[in-house]
Specification:
36% of the residues lie in helices and 24% in strands. It is built from 9 helices and 13 strands. The strands form 3 sheets. A 6-stranded antiparallel sheet has the order 2-1-6-5-4-3. It has a 5-stranded mixed sheet with strand order 8-10-11-13-12. Strands 7-9 form a two-stranded antiparallel sheet. Helix 8 runs antiparallel to helix 9.
Length: 323
């Protein structure tokens, strides 16, 4: 039994229900599921995906078409599934193509409207495109590894898998919001920033701290991811080298800033960069700052963008959401 490559490495680790499917004789067919799916919903492998939809009283598609037709067409769509027994889910069809894809089911607040949820139909389209690059890289190096056995090819495959895992976790953060949060720890901002810096390919960039940084009650994993995405945003949109600075806000407000000496974000685009899928230069998934905004919002923090003292981007994380 096979699984789409994008989720092969992490299907079992997903906290939300997930299934993978393949088109068999033109029929979207369930190929694999995780424990969360089996517990909450349950459809056996080799069953058509339509058997899943039959378990729900209502199935709405963001595209307005029959879900099975959209799966057959290889479209990235968002579905609303609801029933009295199984509750409500927003299902995100990720990395679809002519062969199959994956569906992630996020539990949904029944009081929210369908349009209140993240437009993952748009995001998934971006993700499916962005996943192609590490998939292609991994495939090319796998072929070379079979021929030569050189360690460098296995390292490249490992890096490509890490990239795919990060994309998958980003979209889960967008989809799950506060459900993914556990803000029960007093966290050192400096320690979180240093830990995040170690996970990012910083190349010739340097990290600089300005003043004594505070502690804050936060979710450890999400706070680290916030810094990781801020650092990647600076490095990916900067030059070949530079400095990222982390410091406290000078106006006495509880919070910190991350500033760089890159090209900056034009004032007219500063609100747009928080929209999932939006990129200034057309590169990447356009999820980095959207993830930052979502994590901050889940903590009741606010995010502001300004120009740094060196003409780059300055992003402020204010811990008091009312300011």
């Amino acid at each position: 039994m096979s699984e789409p490559s994008a989720l092969r490495i992490s299907l079992a680790s997903h906290p939300d229900p997930v299934l993978t499917y393949e088109l068999q004789d033109g029929v979207p067919t369930v190929m694999a599921t995780n424990d969360a799916f089996d517990t909450a919903i349950g459809v056996d492998p080799e069953e058509p995906v339509s058997a899943l939809f039959e378990r729900f009283d209502t199935v709405k598609s963001s595209g307005g078409e029959a879900p099975e037709e959209q799966l057959r067409a290889g479209e990235a769509v968002e579905l609303l599934l609801e029933t009295a027994g199984a509750g409500q889910y927003v299902a995100h069809v990720l990395t679809p193509d002519a062969d199959g894809g994956a569906i992630v089911f996020s539990p949904r607040d029944p009081a929210a409207s369908f349009t209140d949820d993240v437009d993952v139909g748009q995001v998934a389209s971006v993700i499916s495109h962005d996943l192609r690059n590490p998939l292609d890289v991994a495939g090319a190096h796998l072929e070379a590894a079979r021929e030569t056995g050189a360690d460098e090819h296995f390292d490249a495959i490992d890096a490509a898998h890490d990239r795919m895992e990060r994309i998958i976790q980003d979209v889960l953060t967008l989809a799950r919001g506060e459900a993914a949060l556990n803000p029960e720890h007093e966290v050192s901002v400096r320690k979180m920033a240093e830990r995040a810096w170690q996970t990012v390919e910083t190349e010739t960039w340097t990290l600089q701290f300005d003043g004594s940084l505070p502690t804050v009650r936060a979710d450890l994993d999400r706070f680290q991811r916030l810094f990781e995405n801020l650092f990647r945003n600076s490095i990916e949109h900067g030059s070949e080298g530079g400095t990222v600075q982390v410091g406290i806000l000078a106006d006495g407000t509880a919070g910190v800033f991350v500033a760089d000496d890159g090209p900056g974000i034009p004032a007219a685009e500063r609100d747009d960069v928080f929209r999932p899928g939006y990129t200034i230069d057309g590169g990447g998934t356009g999820l980095g700052l959207a993830i930052v905004d979502r994590i901050a919002e889940a903590h009741d923090w606010t995010v502001l963008i300004a120009e740094s003292d060196r003409g780059g981007t300055r992003i402020e994380i204010r811990f008091d959401a009312e300011l």
